[in-house]
Amino acid sequence: MLTIIAEIQIRSGVKHYENVCHAFKKITPIVLLEKGCYGYELLTDYLTEVDFQTKVPDSITLLEHWESMQHLNAHLKTAHMQAYQEQVKGDVIGVKIRIMQKGLHI
């Protein structure tokens, strides 16, 4: 099982944030039906004033769980992911992707 952490840097402004969130809202139910997908969740900073929280302005984090690299690669080639990328290309500045596995097996 792989855990994917994608940090999506968006252009500043409510319009860009809302466009990206809307695009994810459209594709999430479709992605969750893909073979090998065990989770697909959009995360944003929780608004609090604690001093130990690191906030990343104009950033959205996507947390995904995939059975294998084969499943992840197939997902990236789907028509809905191609359409998503086209839809948000004016809103997204860049994406950093981490492909993780469990470090401890307890």
Automatic annotation (TrEMBL):
Q: Write out the GO MF terms.
A: monooxygenase activity
UniProt superkingdom: Bacteria
Q: What is its EC number?
A: 1.-.-.-
Q: Which InterPro entries match?
A: ABM_dom (IPR007138), Dimeric_a/b-barrel (IPR011008)
Q: Which residues form a coiled coil?
A: none
Class of this enzyme: oxidoreductase
- Alphabetized Gene3D superfamilies for the sequence: 3.30.70.100
Entry keyword annotation includes Translocase: no
Domain ABM residue range list: 2-100
Q: Which SUPFAM superfamilies match?
A: Dimeric alpha+beta barrel
Keywords from the named record: Monooxygenase, Oxidoreductase
- Asked if the keyword NAD belongs to this entry, the reply reads no
Q: Under which name does UniProt file this protein?
A: Quinol monooxygenase
Origin organism is Acinetobacter albensis
